[in-house]
Protein backbone atom coordinates (compact mmCIF):
# COMPACT_ATOMS: atom_id res chain seq x y z
CA UNK A 1 0.00 0.00 0.00
CA UNK A 2 1.48 3.34 -1.03
CA UNK A 3 1.86 6.30 1.31
CA UNK A 4 -0.82 8.14 -0.65
CA UNK A 5 -3.34 5.45 0.30
CA UNK A 6 -2.74 5.78 4.05
CA UNK A 7 -5.24 7.86 6.02
CA UNK A 8 -3.70 9.92 8.83
CA UNK A 9 -5.74 10.32 12.02
CA UNK A 10 -5.68 12.55 15.09
CA UNK A 11 -7.47 11.07 18.14
CA UNK A 12 -9.02 13.51 20.63
CA UNK A 13 -10.44 12.47 24.01
CA UNK A 14 -10.00 13.88 27.52
CA UNK A 15 -9.80 10.39 29.08
CA UNK A 16 -6.26 9.14 28.65
CA UNK A 17 -7.06 5.43 28.71
CA UNK A 18 -9.76 5.77 26.06
CA UNK A 19 -7.60 8.07 23.94
CA UNK A 20 -4.61 5.75 23.94
CA UNK A 21 -6.77 2.66 23.42
CA UNK A 22 -8.42 4.12 20.33
CA UNK A 23 -5.06 5.26 18.99
CA UNK A 24 -3.53 1.82 19.54
CA UNK A 25 -6.44 -0.04 17.97
CA UNK A 26 -6.48 2.20 14.91
CA UNK A 27 -2.71 2.17 14.59
CA UNK A 28 -2.65 -1.55 13.79
CA UNK A 29 -5.36 -1.32 11.13
CA UNK A 30 -4.13 -1.46 7.51
CA UNK A 31 -4.16 1.82 5.65
CA UNK A 32 -4.36 4.00 8.77
CA UNK A 33 -1.68 5.84 10.71
CA UNK A 34 -2.29 7.75 13.94
CA UNK A 35 -0.21 10.91 13.76
CA UNK A 36 -1.08 12.22 17.22
CA UNK A 37 -3.49 12.51 20.12
CA UNK A 38 -4.98 15.42 22.05
CA UNK A 39 -6.71 15.73 25.43
CA UNK A 40 -9.05 18.64 24.71
CA UNK A 41 -10.45 20.76 21.92
CA UNK A 42 -7.83 23.51 22.09
CA UNK A 43 -4.95 21.05 21.86
CA UNK A 44 -6.78 19.27 19.04
CA UNK A 45 -6.99 22.43 16.96
CA UNK A 46 -3.32 23.26 17.47
CA UNK A 47 -2.20 19.73 16.61
CA UNK A 48 -4.48 19.58 13.58
CA UNK A 49 -2.90 22.76 12.25
CA UNK A 50 0.58 21.36 12.91
CA UNK A 51 0.13 17.73 11.81
CA UNK A 52 -2.49 18.19 9.06
CA UNK A 53 -4.29 14.85 9.62
CA UNK A 54 -6.81 13.61 7.09
CA UNK A 55 -9.37 12.74 9.79
CA UNK A 56 -9.87 13.98 13.35
CA UNK A 57 -11.78 11.67 15.70
CA UNK A 58 -13.26 14.06 18.26
CA UNK A 59 -14.98 13.42 21.58
CA UNK A 60 -17.94 15.72 22.33
CA UNK A 61 -17.72 16.54 26.03
CA UNK A 62 -14.28 17.73 27.17
CA UNK A 63 -13.11 20.36 29.66
CA UNK A 64 -12.11 23.74 28.32
CA UNK A 65 -12.94 23.75 24.62
CA UNK A 66 -15.39 20.94 23.89
CA UNK A 67 -15.51 18.90 20.71
CA UNK A 68 -18.26 20.89 19.03
CA UNK A 69 -16.42 24.20 19.44
CA UNK A 70 -13.18 22.57 18.31
CA UNK A 71 -14.81 21.27 15.12
CA UNK A 72 -16.16 24.74 14.37
CA UNK A 73 -12.66 26.19 14.75
CA UNK A 74 -11.13 23.44 12.61
CA UNK A 75 -13.34 24.59 9.73
CA UNK A 76 -11.40 27.84 9.67
CA UNK A 77 -7.90 26.81 10.74
CA UNK A 78 -7.63 23.31 9.22
CA UNK A 79 -10.42 23.11 6.64
CA UNK A 80 -8.95 20.06 4.87
CA UNK A 81 -9.47 17.88 7.96
CA UNK A 82 -12.56 15.70 8.16
CA UNK A 83 -13.93 15.84 11.71
CA UNK A 84 -15.86 12.82 12.98
CA UNK A 85 -17.44 12.86 16.43
CA UNK A 86 -16.65 9.68 18.37
CA UNK A 87 -18.52 9.74 21.66
CA UNK A 88 -20.82 7.99 24.11
CA UNK A 89 -23.59 10.59 23.79
CA UNK A 90 -26.23 9.77 21.17
CA UNK A 91 -29.05 12.25 21.85
CA UNK A 92 -30.08 14.67 19.15
CA UNK A 93 -28.88 17.83 20.88
CA UNK A 94 -25.26 16.76 20.50
CA UNK A 95 -25.81 15.43 16.98
CA UNK A 96 -27.41 18.67 15.84
CA UNK A 97 -24.70 20.83 17.37
CA UNK A 98 -21.94 18.70 15.86
CA UNK A 99 -23.44 18.84 12.36
CA UNK A 100 -23.90 22.57 12.59
CA UNK A 101 -20.27 22.95 13.66
CA UNK A 102 -19.18 21.05 10.54
CA UNK A 103 -18.69 17.43 11.61
CA UNK A 104 -18.86 14.89 8.79
CA UNK A 105 -19.87 11.98 10.98
CA UNK A 106 -21.25 11.03 14.38
CA UNK A 107 -20.28 7.61 15.75
CA UNK A 108 -20.35 5.91 19.14
CA UNK A 109 -17.31 4.52 20.91
CA UNK A 110 -18.63 0.97 21.07
CA UNK A 111 -17.70 0.35 17.42
CA UNK A 112 -15.39 -2.63 16.84
CA UNK A 113 -11.91 -1.63 15.68
CA UNK A 114 -12.42 -2.84 12.10
CA UNK A 115 -15.66 -0.89 11.72
CA UNK A 116 -14.05 2.22 13.18
CA UNK A 117 -11.19 1.86 10.70
CA UNK A 118 -13.71 1.50 7.86
CA UNK A 119 -15.52 4.58 9.13
CA UNK A 120 -12.27 6.56 9.09
CA UNK A 121 -11.63 5.57 5.47
CA UNK A 122 -15.18 6.52 4.46
CA UNK A 123 -14.88 9.85 6.25
CA UNK A 124 -11.67 10.55 4.36
CA UNK A 125 -13.57 9.78 1.13
CA UNK A 126 -16.24 12.32 2.06
CA UNK A 127 -18.99 9.94 3.16
CA UNK A 128 -21.12 11.30 6.01
CA UNK A 129 -21.98 8.64 8.59
CA UNK A 130 -24.28 8.32 11.58
CA UNK A 131 -24.42 5.66 14.24
CA UNK A 132 -27.92 4.14 13.97
CA UNK A 133 -28.85 5.19 17.52
CA UNK A 134 -27.82 8.79 16.82
CA UNK A 135 -29.70 8.73 13.52
CA UNK A 136 -32.84 7.50 15.30
CA UNK A 137 -32.62 10.32 17.83
CA UNK A 138 -32.13 12.87 15.06
CA UNK A 139 -35.10 11.49 13.13
CA UNK A 140 -37.23 11.73 16.27
CA UNK A 141 -36.21 15.36 16.69
CA UNK A 142 -37.12 16.13 13.08
CA UNK A 143 -40.60 14.67 13.44
CA UNK A 144 -41.38 16.08 16.88
CA UNK A 145 -43.93 18.91 16.48
CA UNK A 146 -43.35 22.28 18.08
CA UNK A 147 -45.96 24.46 19.74
CA UNK A 148 -46.34 26.26 16.41
CA UNK A 149 -47.09 22.99 14.61
CA UNK A 150 -43.78 22.80 12.72
CA UNK A 151 -40.50 21.03 13.41
CA UNK A 152 -39.17 21.07 16.95
CA UNK A 153 -38.37 24.63 17.94
CA UNK A 154 -34.76 25.43 17.26
CA UNK A 155 -34.32 21.91 15.93
CA UNK A 156 -32.55 20.56 12.90
CA UNK A 157 -34.76 22.35 10.37
CA UNK A 158 -33.41 25.74 11.40
CA UNK A 159 -30.48 26.00 8.95
CA UNK A 160 -28.29 23.88 6.66
CA UNK A 161 -25.12 22.18 7.84
CA UNK A 162 -22.05 24.36 7.67
CA UNK A 163 -19.90 21.94 5.70
CA UNK A 164 -19.87 18.62 3.93
CA UNK A 165 -22.17 16.94 1.42
CA UNK A 166 -25.76 18.04 1.09
CA UNK A 167 -28.20 16.11 3.27
CA UNK A 168 -31.40 16.78 1.33
CA UNK A 169 -31.05 14.16 -1.39
CA UNK A 170 -29.12 11.12 -2.55
CA UNK A 171 -25.32 11.30 -2.49
CA UNK A 172 -23.58 12.24 -5.73
CA UNK A 173 -22.45 9.45 -8.00
CA UNK A 174 -18.86 8.42 -7.63
CA UNK A 175 -16.71 5.60 -6.32
CA UNK A 176 -16.60 7.01 -2.82
CA UNK A 177 -20.36 6.47 -2.49
CA UNK A 178 -20.64 3.28 -4.51
CA UNK A 179 -20.27 0.69 -1.75
CA UNK A 180 -22.32 -0.12 1.35
CA UNK A 181 -21.29 1.31 4.71
CA UNK A 182 -19.58 -0.92 7.25
CA UNK A 183 -21.87 -2.94 9.49
CA UNK A 184 -23.46 -0.91 12.26
CA UNK A 185 -23.08 2.46 10.51
CA UNK A 186 -25.76 4.52 8.83
CA UNK A 187 -24.59 6.86 6.02
CA UNK A 188 -26.52 10.08 5.68
CA UNK A 189 -28.34 9.63 2.40
CA UNK A 190 -31.14 12.01 3.26
CA UNK A 191 -31.26 13.73 6.59
CA UNK A 192 -31.68 17.03 8.32
CA UNK A 193 -31.80 20.32 6.56
CA UNK A 194 -29.60 21.68 9.31
CA UNK A 195 -29.34 22.26 13.03
CA UNK A 196 -29.77 24.97 15.58
CA UNK A 197 -26.78 26.89 16.81
CA UNK A 198 -27.88 26.85 20.44
CA UNK A 199 -25.21 25.42 22.73
CA UNK A 200 -25.82 22.59 25.13
CA UNK A 201 -25.65 24.90 28.10
CA UNK A 202 -27.61 27.83 26.73
CA UNK A 203 -31.15 28.70 27.74
CA UNK A 204 -32.59 27.87 24.35
CA UNK A 205 -34.56 25.01 22.84
CA UNK A 206 -32.08 22.49 24.24
CA UNK A 207 -32.48 23.70 27.82
CA UNK A 208 -34.97 22.80 30.50
CA UNK A 209 -36.29 26.35 30.44
CA UNK A 210 -37.76 25.59 27.02
CA UNK A 211 -39.26 22.29 28.19
CA UNK A 212 -42.28 22.87 30.32
CA UNK A 213 -41.08 26.18 31.72
CA UNK A 214 -38.95 24.64 34.49
CA UNK A 215 -36.04 26.55 35.92
CA UNK A 216 -33.77 23.50 36.30
CA UNK A 217 -30.17 23.68 35.12
CA UNK A 218 -30.80 20.69 32.86
CA UNK A 219 -31.10 20.14 29.14
CA UNK A 220 -34.44 19.12 27.67
CA UNK A 221 -33.17 15.56 27.30
CA UNK A 222 -32.10 15.44 30.95
CA UNK A 223 -35.56 16.62 32.00
CA UNK A 224 -37.06 13.74 30.00
CA UNK A 225 -34.73 11.29 31.72
CA UNK A 226 -35.52 12.79 35.13
CA UNK A 227 -39.25 12.37 34.53
CA UNK A 228 -38.81 8.72 33.62
CA UNK A 229 -36.56 8.09 36.62
CA UNK A 230 -39.22 9.66 38.84
CA UNK A 231 -41.82 7.32 37.34
CA UNK A 232 -39.74 4.32 38.37
CA UNK A 233 -38.36 3.37 34.94
CA UNK A 234 -35.17 1.33 34.82
CA UNK A 235 -32.19 2.42 32.74
CA UNK A 236 -33.11 -0.18 30.12
CA UNK A 237 -36.70 1.07 29.97
CA UNK A 238 -35.53 4.68 29.67
CA UNK A 239 -33.10 3.70 26.91
CA UNK A 240 -35.87 1.98 24.96
CA UNK A 241 -38.32 4.84 25.44
CA UNK A 242 -35.87 7.55 24.33
CA UNK A 243 -33.92 5.51 21.73
CA UNK A 244 -30.70 5.87 23.71
CA UNK A 245 -28.06 3.38 24.76
CA UNK A 246 -28.03 2.32 28.41
CA UNK A 247 -24.58 3.88 28.75
CA UNK A 248 -25.95 7.24 27.61
CA UNK A 249 -28.83 6.96 30.10
CA UNK A 250 -26.34 6.30 32.90
CA UNK A 251 -24.33 9.35 31.84
CA UNK A 252 -27.46 11.50 31.84
CA UNK A 253 -28.49 10.32 35.31
CA UNK A 254 -25.01 10.97 36.70
CA UNK A 255 -25.07 14.51 35.30
CA UNK A 256 -28.60 15.11 36.64
CA UNK A 257 -27.63 14.01 40.15
CA UNK A 258 -24.46 16.09 40.03
CA UNK A 259 -26.12 19.25 38.73
CA UNK A 260 -28.98 19.06 41.23
CA UNK A 261 -26.83 18.00 44.19
CA UNK A 262 -28.75 14.75 44.71
CA UNK A 263 -27.45 11.41 46.00
CA UNK A 264 -29.62 8.82 44.30
CA UNK A 265 -32.66 8.06 42.16
CA UNK A 266 -35.01 8.28 45.14
CA UNK A 267 -33.98 11.86 45.81
CA UNK A 268 -34.31 12.57 42.09
CA UNK A 269 -37.87 11.22 42.09
CA UNK A 270 -38.82 13.37 45.08
CA UNK A 271 -37.19 16.40 43.45
CA UNK A 272 -39.13 15.87 40.22
CA UNK A 273 -42.41 15.34 42.08
CA UNK A 274 -41.97 18.50 44.18
CA UNK A 275 -41.40 20.54 41.02
CA UNK A 276 -44.39 19.22 39.14
CA UNK A 277 -42.46 17.24 36.53
CA UNK A 278 -44.63 14.12 36.87
UniProtKB/TrEMBL annotation:
Residues 146-213 are annotated as: Disordered. Residues 211-276 form the HTH luxR-type domain. GO terms for biological process: phosphorelay signal transduction system; regulation of DNA-templated transcription. Keywords: DNA-binding, Phosphoprotein. Residues 158-184 have a biased composition (Pro residues). Gene3D superfamilies: 3.40.50.2300, Winged helix-like DNA-binding domain superfamily/Winged helix DNA-binding domain. Pfam families: GerE (PF00196), Response_reg (PF00072). The keyword Magnesium does not apply. Residues 146-157, 185-213 have a biased composition (Low complexity). The keyword Transmembrane does not apply. One of its GO terms (molecular function) is DNA binding. Residues 8-124 form the Response regulatory domain. InterPro entries: CheY-like_superfamily (IPR011006), NreC/VraR/RcsB-like_REC (IPR058245), Sig_transdc_resp-reg_C-effctor (IPR016032), Sig_transdc_resp-reg_receiver (IPR001789), Tscrpt_reg_LuxR_C (IPR000792), WalR-like (IPR039420), WH-like_DNA-bd_sf (IPR036388). The modification 4-aspartylphosphate is found at residue 59. SMART domains: HTH_LUXR (SM00421), REC (SM00448). PANTHER family: TWO-COMPONENT RESPONSE REGULATOR. This is DNA-binding response regulator. The lineage of its organism: Bacteria, Bacillati, Actinomycetota, Actinomycetes, Streptosporangiales.
Amino acid sequence: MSGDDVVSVLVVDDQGLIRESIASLLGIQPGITVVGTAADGREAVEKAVELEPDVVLMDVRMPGMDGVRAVAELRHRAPACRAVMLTTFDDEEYVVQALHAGATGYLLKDLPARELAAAVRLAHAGVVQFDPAAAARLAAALTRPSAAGGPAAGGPAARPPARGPEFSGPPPAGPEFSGPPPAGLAPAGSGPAGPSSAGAGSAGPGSAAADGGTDLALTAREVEVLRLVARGSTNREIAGHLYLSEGTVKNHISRILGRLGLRDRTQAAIYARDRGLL
